[in-house]
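I would like you to help me understand the sequence and structure tokens below and explain how sequence relates to structure.
___
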Amino acid sequence: MRENIFILEAGSAVEELPEAPFPYPFPLLLLLLLLQHCLQKLYLGKKNMHTSFCSPSSSSSLAIFKLNQNPLLPHLVSTPRLTLKRRPASTTRALLSAHRELVLKDFHERRALKIISGLQNLDRENVASVVTAADKGGATHVDIACDAELVKLAISLTSLPVCVSSVDPAEFLPAVEAGALMVEIGNYDSFYEAGIIFSADQILNLTKETRRLLPSVALSVTVPHTLGLPDQVKLAELLEQEGVDVIQTEGGKCSHPSKSGILGLIEKAAPTLAAAYSISRAVKIPVMCSSGLSAVTAPMAITAGAAGVGVGSAVNKLNNVVAMIAEVRSIADSLAPTAAQLSRPDSAFLNL
């Protein structure tokens, strides 16, 4: 291998033997040196900043990514499950309060029309028909049984505010989470048929518990017609003090008309009309007249002092959705002239 080395001898000059060709072209060598320099700079910079997000394995050159050290993924955790950020309670209350005002708008304008499917009506097909009729017929609200799945069905069919009815305050929570914007303690007809009646104290306690659970949700409470009229008025006043937004009246079940036709319709509506008249003059919150009403008597309820009407069996007992829509439209049209007249400044005499 003498040709590849320098030979130094005492007293002699240095003799340089011819070099063998370099195995890499000069440009490639320069590129390799530059790449090595850059890699060294990158490594030293990362090491000094302590921001490396990969850790070399001791047994191989493979790198394992550590999610909690990755500056590109600051919001991920080491587990694959993502945790949703809870909305602050103050924000939730503000949203519910805004919805509450929107739900009550038609009551304040004295033109609310709520179509009721029934507290114990869990028939999805019938409920869907009632909701569709309310939406297409010109109603302002729809009232269904307190069931989260029914609420989801209803809000998929209409943009109207959905109210849920129950006599169990705990049932309201999942329904509100599903999208219900109003809750109702009432629609007791199915209980009357089973021989169950509610006392004023029971209604008051249910109201307190509901308001405790849902302080920012619109709340309507039905005053039982089984109470005498003075007791209905007294209960309504107590409910107003507990923060109830709407008082609903009833009476259709206790009425047995002796006449047919229009006279019979008026007779049937008389108990709930009387309650609406009396209660609306004792409280400042809106009163909804419900039970036993029709297109004939709905305008009478508004004239008597009600801010809206609730209609159930006149719609939900019909056989098909077309007939339901026609009935809702008939009632909505009957209310329009009365609501327009009451909005005029010279209509104050109607409230005397």
